[in-house]
Amino acid sequence: MVDISQSTEIPPATTEISLTNGNDSPAPPNGEYGDSKPSSENGDKSASMSPGSNPLPNTPIGGGGQSYHGSTSVGSRLAGEDIVGRRINKKKITTHTQSLNDPHQSPVFKGGQTIGNSNSMGFGNSLDTTNNTNKMSNLTLQEVQQVAAVKAENLKTWSVKTYRCTKQLLSEKLGRGTKTVDLELEAKIEILRDTKRKYENLLVLSRALANHFSSVVQTQKVLGEAFSQLSGKSQELQDEFRYNAETQHVLAKNGEALLAAINFFSSGINTLCSKTMEDTLLTVKRYEAARVEFDAYRSELEVLKLAPRTEANILKQANAQANYNNNKAVYDKLRADVGVKIQFLDENRMKVMQKQLQLFHNAVTAYFAGNQQELESTLKQFNVKHTSEDKPSWLESQT
Question: Region entry Disordered: which residue ranges (predicted)?
Answer without folding.
Answer: 1-83
